[in-house]
Amino acid sequence: MTPSCHAACAPGERLPWLRIGFSAFLAMNAMTLSLAVNLSETTAAERGRLHLAAAILTAAVFALLAGPLLTSAWRALRARRVSIEALFLLGIAGAVGASAMASITGKGAVYYEVAAILLVVYTLGTMAAARAQQRALDALLAVPAPGGAPLHEGARFQVHPGERIPVRARVVAGEAFVEESRLTGEFFANRRSSGDTLPAGAYSLDGLLTLEALEDSRTPSPLLEAIDRARANPASIARTADRFAQLFVPVVSLAAAATFAFWFHRADLPTALLHCMAVLLVACPCAAGFATPAALWSAARGLAARGFLVRDGASIERLACIDTAVFDKTGTLAAVDPALVRAEYVLPEPAALRQLAAAVERASRHPLATAFREVDSGDHVVEALRLLPGRGVEARLADGRTVRLESAGGDAEREVLMTVDNRPAARFFIGERLHPALPEALERLQDQGVQTILATGDAPARAAAAGFPETHPSLDPEAKQDLVRQLQAQGRTVLFLGDGVNDTPALAAAHCGIAVHAGAEAAHELAALVWRGGDPRDIPAAIAYAREARRVTRSNLQLAVAYNIAGIAVAAAGLLHPILAVLLMTCSSLTVTWRALRLLPQEEDAA
Q: DSSP letter string over 353-385?
């Protein structure tokens, strides 16, 4: 189903599922009436009333659901492109035409319910994607102003420790460590003080800040605008079903017209209409339209076993096509929480000093405290704790000693100085640890013909340590998006893997976006796939599996084409009754679904 049909779930519509449910109810009633006419003896008057009732029910379903389908087909036609929507319209036209012929002539079966069911199935396929895309923008940066009141440019307000900053603002007074990793990609929390500018969505870790708003809280975020631009100009390739439709729709139309002309010349109008409608019904796009999603959704189950939640079937096809993979680093290939990398000790008894540091850090909200989470804190008891906003923490222990831990900056690693009773005691170096399987994952991607690139908001020294053949450090959200666009302009099909709000423009712009499950919710909504994270070897495994799914998809589509061509030939020869045409259409759909389930492996080692 195409994104252009997402109007079926317009954002302002409050009860879309009620509309679908009511349409399905009407379609089932139309089917009951059609079966009553087709399978039982009725008088002419009864037949006329049942035909009229089935036609009215189908017209009601058409009025409720056909708008997006007609609009999409018309747009494609104006763009001189034939889409899968045209195939659905052909099937609907065949069912309605054959039914109208039967109602007028009083001979033959009616198929009004086929048109109604096709519309219901089509709309259900577009519903979920439409709603998910709208929720993406609603969730992005949904940061309320203090007290729920809107802020105007120039307004002053305070942010306490643990509170998020609602708008882009400048620090007027105060000092604190500010967490910005989800917004900028910078691994460490930064010390911010008077004069510094802070992005919306950041939050203070340990200090009270007085801020001045640099924008109105009702002004659209530049990040949202960047995502809107990416959504308006998506990186995409023509779908297999659409490419098939480019040829198949004209062929079916010509076949139906030729069949009508032949039998009208050889027999009469009712016979010509009967065989023409049989051609259109047997060529209904159900098999062609379902060949692709049947295989792709089977692949989605296999990918789920590997830790990937797939947004829709088309996401797997896009994943199979990528030749360039762009990775974020912080929170994606490395944990967001810092780790204790190494230490240098001035005083004796290093183990005791590590325990002291761990006891103090566990009692604090210092941004580097999690680095000591796995260090034994011994039996030390912290009686009093004093935060040093923007610098560190000072503690008084039960044994009377005073321990101070203070950040001393650093590039690739952050240095923490420790003093005990004002005497230098140790230097701890805090950094990040990349997954040990990353080199192997990069090698596998290279073997698959996929170029790998690191794009991060982190410092150059930490970015270079990741070992990528091409690295782009210190990138803001729009710069990441620009990098993706530049690669696409070079003819590359780009995968972007990220986790934070700062990655959302690039995720929206990329041909295929993968968001880490532990990351920002907005990134989840805009990505094609959500990955549970962990082992980077999952990425080449997923690509291999998607490529196998594409192979099965194409095989299914070829079978559907062969099936329909054979059916058209038989119907054109006058050897196929419309009822049998509908049965053949159903059988072809069941066949491609069975092949998808049978051919796609579901075992863990299928990739």
A: HHHHHHHHHHTS--TTGGGGTTS--TT--EEEE
Q: Which helix (H) or strand (E) holds 56?
A: helix 44-78
402-407 and 414-420 as β-strands: parallel, antiparallel, unpaired?
A: antiparallel
Q: How far is CA 269 from the centre of its chain?
A: 51
- Report in angstroms the alpha-carbon separations of 14 from 486, 525, 540: 40, 20, 41
Q: Which tokens sit at 293? A: 């999603």
CA pair distance 330, 315, nearest whole angstrom:
24
Rounded CA separation 507/494 (Å):
10
Strand partners, 190: 178
CA distance 480 to 463: 14
pLDDT tens for 21-50 read 888 888 888 878 877 776 677 777 887 888
Neighbours of 447 (CB within 10 A): 9
Nearest Cα residue to 299 out of 312, 286, 288, 287? 312
Triad 237, 479, 137: Cα angle to 5°: 65
Residue 83 φ then ψ, to 5°:
-110, 175
- Residue 363: pLDDT band with limits 50, 70, 90: confident
Kind of pairing between the strands at 414-420 and 209-213: unpaired
CA dist 177 and 164 (Å) reads 13
Contact 146, 158 (CB under 8 A): yes
Q: Closest Cα partner for 341 from 474, 203, 187, 206?
A: 187
Cα separation, 585 vs 288, whole angstroms: 10
Strand locations in 313-450 (E): 324-327, 339-345, 382-388, 392-397, 402-407, 414-420, 423-431
pTM: 0.56
Comparing CA positions, the residue from 181, 508, 540, 529 lying closest to residue 331 is 181
Listed in sequence order, the residues at least 6 apart from 142 whose beta carbon sits closer than 8 Å to its beta carbon are none
Nearest residue to 523 (alpha-carbon basis) of 312, 227, 319: 227
Say which DSSP state 537 is in.
T
pLDDT value of residue 203: 74
Task: Compute the 3-state secondary structure of the chain and give helix, strand, coil in percent, each to the nearest 5.
Answer: 55, 15, 30
Distance CA 477, CA 194 (A): 25
